[in-house]
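Deviation from plan, reported transparently: beta-D-fucopyranose complex.
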Amino acid sequence: MRASQPRNVVTNPSLSPISLPTFNRHDFGPDFIWGTATAAYQIEGAVDRDGRTPCVWDTFSRQKGKIKTGETADIACEFYDRYESDLLIHKELGLTAFRFSLSWSRILPNGVGPLHGGRINEAGLAFYDRLIDHCLALGITPWITLYHWDLPQALETKGGWPNRKIVDWFADFADVCTKAFGHKVKHWIILNEPLAFSILGYFTGQHAPGRRSFRNLLPVIHHTTLAQAEGGRVVRRNVANAHVGTTFSCSPVDPFTPGDQAAAGRVDALMNRLFIEPALGLGYPTKELPFLAGIAKKVAKPGDMEQLAFDFDFIGLQHYFRAVVEQSYFMPYLWAKDVSPLRRSVPTITEMGWEVYPESMYRVIKQFGQYEGIKKMYITESGAAFYDTVQNGEVNDKARVKYHQNYLQNVLRAKQEGFPVDGYFAWTFLDNFEWAEGYRPRFGLVYVDFRTQQRIVKASGRWFQQLLTDHSFVNQ
Ligand code: FCB
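Because the crystal trials were delayed, the predicted structure below was used instead.
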């Protein structure tokens, strides 16, 4: 469902004008969190420095044809060396929360910690320690993601997510990280979008490690769900006053025609319910997706089903687009397929081929807000890739400004209706390595010239700055 389109057909950066009520930051309340989200592999570079070993993305990006542009993240944004000056820009924009992930293989070069015979790379921990201290010194609150897709290659070699031992390996990693940083960092996110790395990594093979088989799918889903809850328990145990959550990709799903209702229900179960429902103690959505019953029958060990739930303090919603689907006999297990935005002639499609549809933000908050067990929600990612150009040293990314404005407007609408949504992390701070798409899609509030590593704050960054720092600013 993470569809992308050929480059020559996508971009239409002008948004059709829609009239929206005005807002300013105070409408969101004093406790609303304003930040950006990033991921280690996409920004850090320095892939072989100070004891870091390869992760699955290092291996995958070196294989021919896996990354559309043939690029790797060896250098990326050089955030490893530039974090100090970069965070000064972050502060200048008035964004006071910074979400970043920890590179597992920087911290545990063999993937496993001392409990499993591995060793901790002190230089890896030291980097994150400096980064955290720098955030704190600038008045920026760190939000740590434990796993944003960069599995150590050493663990993939031992079987990766299909190997049940991953649950212990992950718990071990979480233990090391929380013991090292739990006294300074209170906001912890266990996984970034379990659906994406399990399906794209092990079923369709579009993402690292690039495996494609149905055989892996149920074990990967189950081990990920177990790790999600186990990670929560480790954070709770090790971090005093922890604020612990995990993130989910989510999209409202509409049927293409009235006859596609059941197909939409199945896709909704896959895209929106598969990982949250077991975490809430509701089990896997086997009614809509009967193949998931194979987990209890063939994959789970006795007692597992009681281990899937965890009482998260919050959940992170990562929302970009809605899905419109139709019945299809060619897509096994799901019997449904995406009706692309191009086919639907939607007015605004991003460089990723994703539909811009602001109301879908309101709808996902409402949908997830209906679960009883969810206490608080944050938008831990939302953003858009548009083709950016530098003119006279400036990047006037009007379409991205409109995107954030309109999506935020819909966050506010949900909030005003009483849904407990308390923050927005723009994806993303810096243009970066967009996984299998390479560096081409630019999502940043800050432009990066990848030849010179020069940074240019885009109009969208300035828009956030005005919203957050100019008290008379009212969004029009
Ligand atoms: C999300 C990922 C993030 C980035 C955005 C565009 O699914 O979590 O790393 O790739 O999409």
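The longest strand covers residues 141-147. We consider this an acceptable substitute for the interim report.
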